[in-house]
Design a protein that fits this description.
The chain contains eight helices and 14 strands. It has about 300 residues and is an alpha+beta fold.
Length: about 300
């Protein structure tokens, strides 16, 4: 683990702000950076995204120019985009969490308020984490097939944001959700089942401290798979309780696997997501771990 303050040249930080993300309470993040970043130690610039998909370009450009850290200012969607631009480079991802879930920030124990997150960046702790891919698309927190992807698709079309919207959606949609048969291969074993959800966890949680894979270690080179077969109301309650208590669910509600990769096939078009971003439908999925592929500023 290196300390940024040890570097001989003054390290540069780029802050990438997604102006569309964040709670309704407006904080002038640029002003907070001016106030709290250690300007004796670090140079910085601030750029704003103009459109979805802009952040990877801005991050890639900064990595090519030798910036020490690129800080994603936004929710997990922005974090995902910035991190994509930093994969396999020496530039570390920093986070100022501004989303409703903040899954990666929570897993990496980044402070959740703007001022504290900036002061945390000053400490300059760096380490490396794994990332994953689902059908080639990178993810850093979780990806999934089934109900979680369905919720991300409904959420994407909803104007409302935040935890309450998520909970309302889940309660409304869970009763109507149609389970589909899949064939998955995990660690050489073939599983054929009616699927509610198959979640692929690099970090332990979806965000909002909802733990889908409590044992997940973001640095072990392994993916934690949580398989939930057909769900009834009793199992749904058991699973929800376990997720909020940061404990594995009982064996008849969910099964957990550690693996380097998974393939899934189905005769039906199924939805998938990466870090809560809805990615559309497919009949075949390949999920892979990419060990130690991203530097981060984390505890
Ligand atoms: N300038 C922009 N205009 C429109 N969309 C943008 C812009 N910049 C980034 N985006 C898109 O906004 C999406 C959502 O961002 P993000 O997840 O950070 O915020 P959020 O939706 O408020 O957070 P959460 O998902 O935690 O509620 C990103 O996936 C990104 O593609």
């Amino acid at each position: 683990m290196a300390d940024l303050s040890d570097m001989s040249k003054r390290p540069r930080f780029r802050f990438i702000i997604n102006p569309t993300s964040g709670p309704s309470s407006r904080v002038d993040v640029a002003a907070r950076i001016k106030l709290h970043l250690d300007h004796q130690k670090f140079d910085h610039d601030i750029v704003y995204t103009d459109y979805a998909g802009h952040a990877p370009e801005l991050a890639r450009e900064a990595a090519a120019q030798g910036y020490a850290v690129v800080v994603a200012v936004g929710g997990d969607g922005t974090v995902n985009e910035v991190a994509q631009g930093l994969l396999h480079t020496e530039t570390a991802l920093g986070i100022i969490p501004r989303g409703s879930g903040n899954g990666l920030a929570r897993h990496l124990q980044v402070p959740l308020t703007v001022d504290a997150a900036i002061r945390f960046l000053n400490q300059g702790h760096r380490s490396q984490i794994d990332s994953g891919t689902i059908n080639g698309r990178p993810f850093f927190t979780t990806a999934g097939i089934g109900f979680d992807a369905y919720i991300s698709s409904v959420f994407a079309g909803s104007k409302k944001r935040g935890l309450q919207t998520y909970v309302e959606l889940i309660l409304k949609e869970v009763r109507n959700y149609r389970h589909l048969p899949v064939k998955a291969v995990i660690n050489g074993k073939t599983i054929e089942t009616e699927l509610f959800v198959m979640a692929f966890a690099n970090a332990a949680q979806y965000g909002n401290n909802a733990y889908i894979a409590p044992m997940a270690n973001i640095r072990d080179g392994l993916l934690d798979v949580c398989l939930v077969r057909k769900l009834d109301m009793f199992k749904a309650l058991q699973l929800s309780y376990a997720m909020l208590a940061n404990k594995p669910a009982s064996a008849d509600s969910a099964e957990y696997f550690k693996t380097e990769g998974v393939t899934v096939q189905t005769d039906h078009e199924m939805m998938h997501h990466a870090d809560g971003e809805y990615l559309g439908k497919a009949k075949e999925f390949e999920v892979r771990m990419v060990p130690q592929s991203l530097h981060v500023v984390a505890r």
